[in-house]
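Request: Show me your protein:
***
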Amino acid sequence: MALSDLNRCVRQLLGQIQRCRPVAATNQTARCLSQAASQPEPSANENEAVNPTFVNRNPRNLEQMALAVKDRGWKTTWPHREFYHRLVFSRTQHYVTAQVFSSSSPVPVLTCSTTEWALKKELASTRCVAACQAVGEVLARRCQQAGITRMVYRAIPWAYRSDAVQAFRKGMKEGGITLSEPRRKYIGT
C-alpha cells in the first residue's frame, strides 16, 4: 500500500516539474518544486467518524425519508389522520380555496384562494374550472417554495370526478406535487 502511494507522489512530482520547466531562470524551478509537496490524504476511518453530539437541524428529515411516525387516529374517523401533509380543496358559492395541513397542527401550513386579489384580478370568474386550475398551480408553486412535494389528497368520492376537481389536480401535478405520500418504513429495533 505504501509503495503505491509513493509511486503516485513521484508521478505527481515529475508531472509538476515538467510543467514548470523554466526557460532561463532556475529560481522558478525551486519554487515549483516547493509547491509540489502534496497534502496527505485522509484515511477512510477519519471520513466515517461522526461527531457524537450531532444534532439534526432539519425537522422534516425523517418525514422526507418516510421514517417519521404518522398519527393513525381511529379507524372509524374520516378523513384518515395517517399523513404528514394533507391537502383540502373546497368550493363555495363564490370562491375556491385550497389548504395544506400538517399532521401536528390544526392551522393550515399553506393556503391559496380566489379571494386573494392577485389571483382574483387575473380570472374572469372566481368559481369556474379555470379558477380551480389556477388555484392548483399557485398552491403547487407555494408548496415547492416551502419544500413540500408530497401530500395526501382524498376528495369526497362523489365530488372527485367533477371537472373542477380534476382541473385542480392537474394544476397541482403540473406544478410538480405528488398527491400521495410514501408508505411509512418500519425499522426493526
About this structure: The two ends are 39 Å apart (CA to CA). The first helix runs from residue 2 to 19. The beta strands are 85-91, 96-102, 108-113. Residues 25 and 55 are 55 Å apart (CA to CA).
